[in-house]
Amino acid sequence: MQSIRIALDAFGGDNAPQVNVDGAFLALKEFQDLEILLVGREEDLKPLIKESPETSRISIVDAREVFPMSEKPSLLLRKKETSLYKAAIQVKDANADALVSAGNTGGVLAAALFVVGRIKGVDRGAIAVLVPSKNGFTILIDAGANAEARAEHLRDFGTMGYEYAKLLGREKPKVGLLNVGEEQEKGTELTKLAFDYLKNDLGDSFAGNVEGRDINYGDVDVVVCSGFDGNIAMKTMEGTGKLISATLKKEIKKSGLFGIIGALFLKRALGRLKKTMDPSEYGGAFILGVKGAVVKAHGNSNALAIKNAIRVAYQGVKGDLIKKLEEKLGGK
């Protein structure tokens, strides 16, 4: 059985390196054919690695520096001793199959696009995020890599999202284009041209225009948009989720004893709802369009989120997602 090797930026994220090491061990317990390369200061990482059956599948790649969360992404290529840069090099040099980092978002994008490198025929990489929906999840792409995009970029995002949805178990994914209305004539010149491109490339798999509400409560599996629109949509959903949670807690307290009793009866259902809405359960965002599996975990990830980010990368490698995208997009 050939192992899948994932380079983990051990010093990326607000809670590094402890949660990254803990998350790595959780992933190793789940996947028996997984190996983890912890990239970071060796003397800091060694004491965190406890002896266990999984220890033999974990190794350290020494990196003397950390790429700060507030650093300009463009500086990554100059800071070649950082754990993020060295983790990306592991993928570029084929020492690892995937990169996972909870570090600086712009830095991870720079590592993906300029160190790992874009797939031939792809002008722009894109961030694909799994958003909770009535069908389990909807893939939102692009969620922030490209503030501006051309119609042909949106077409490529649609293809990437389609293949990713298939990897995640959707047999016949439906792809929608985010717009201000469902009618074909709605939107800007950009979305109208992108509509034609997506229809031509995806055929019946293209569901046409969808609106913001369809991201969470529509019948499509993938929603395509620019990174500007996608990031606003994603942050709006995060805020709405927090508002619902805070309002629910407030109203339960205001209802006194009966409200607390009612909440106890609903505890199991509320627990399932919380789990469904918990970003930690979804792991990380796939940066698609590059020649390796690159996954960005949330900056304040806990060990569970890191484990699930590793799972996302593992699934991408196991399902040959990069090879499929190369075949689909390489000739464009």
TrEMBL record:
Q: Which GO cellular component term is one of those annotated? A: cytoplasm
Please state which protein family the record places this protein in.
Answer: Belongs to the PlsX family.
Tell me which UniProt keywords the record has, alphabetically: Acyltransferase, Cytoplasm, Lipid biosynthesis, Lipid metabolism, Phospholipid biosynthesis, Phospholipid metabolism, Transferase
Alphabetical GO biological process terms: fatty acid biosynthetic process; phospholipid biosynthetic process
Subcellular location per UniProt equals: Cytoplasm
Q: How does it assemble?
A: Homodimer. Probably interacts with PlsY.
EC number(s) reported in the record:
2.3.1.274
Q: What's the protein here called? A: Phosphate acyltransferase
Molecular-function GO term, any one: phosphate:acyl-[acyl carrier protein] acyltransferase activity
Q: Which Pfam family, an example, fits this chain?
A: FA_synthesis
Source organism per entry reads Mesotoga prima MesG1.Ag.4.2
- Catalyzed chemical reaction(s): a fatty acyl-[ACP] + phosphate = an acyl phosphate + holo-[ACP]
Instruction: Note the InterPro entries from the entry.
Output: FA_synthesis (IPR003664), Phospholipid_synth_PlsX-like (IPR012281)
Pathway, per UniProt? Lipid metabolism; phospholipid metabolism
